[in-house]
Amino acid sequence: MNRRIALTAAMTLLCFGVALPANNASAQQKSLKDQLAGTWMQVSNITTHPDGTKSDTWGPNAKSIVIFASNGRVATVTMRSDLPKFASNNRATGTADENKAVIQGSIAYFGTYSVDEADKSLTIQIEGATFPNWTGTAQKRKIAISGDELTQSVAAGSAGGTVEIKFKRVS
């Protein structure tokens, strides 16, 4: 009798399209693109130079934000924490030394992005950049996401060498 009740209950559930949840983590896992969407703040940005030495790309306590919109748009701004204030208090009349420090101590770009799930990579199609050589180019980066941590590996940094950038998701 108990088998008949159990069988009837199982058939009823199947008839109504109710199924037990699959015990498969990948079925519940978001795509890499879905995990990437959001706002991220930089934790570290380390350049490995051709001779193997490593340096903090933007100096200590650099500030950086990257925003990956779910519609495929991206924007990022990165700057040293010690950028000089302009004595004139006017962006258009900075001295040669002030302008040089700001140009060498910051970068910003925007464009679109796509994610290759199989390759675990991100390609950014740069539409505009403060480093004009990047405008109109595609930047491919390996990415890894673990919880609220994002790591990007850049094969060719804007100042040479390879770069590993770590971010933390902004809640």
Structure description:
This protein is an alpha+beta fold. Helices cover 19% and strands 41% of the residues. A hairpin with a 4-residue loop joins strand 5 (106-116) and strand 6 (121-129). The longest helix is centred in the first third of the chain and has 14 residues, at 2-15. Mean pLDDT is 86; it is low at 3-27.
Q: Quick summary of this structure?
A:
The protein has 171 residues and is α+β, with helices and mostly antiparallel strands.
- The CATH topology comes to Lipocalin
Structural class: alpha+beta
Taking all residues together, what is the mean pLDDT?
Answer: 86
Question: What is the spatial order of strands in the main beta sheet?
Answer: 1-3-4-5-6-7-8-9
Helix content: 10-25%
Label the overall shape: globular
**How many whole angstroms does the radius of gyration measure?**
24 Å
Proportion of beta-strand residues:
35-45%
The total of beta strands comes to: 9
The largest β sheet comes out as: 8 strands, antiparallel, barrel
Spell out the key features of this protein.
171 residues, alpha+beta, Lipocalin, eight-stranded antiparallel barrel, 4 helices, 19% helix, disordered N terminus
Lay out the secondary structure.
Layout: H1 2-15, H2 25-28, H3 32-36, E1 38-48, E2 54-56, E3 63-68, E4 73-79, H4 96-104, E5 106-116, E6 121-129, E7 138-146, E8 149-154, E9 162-169
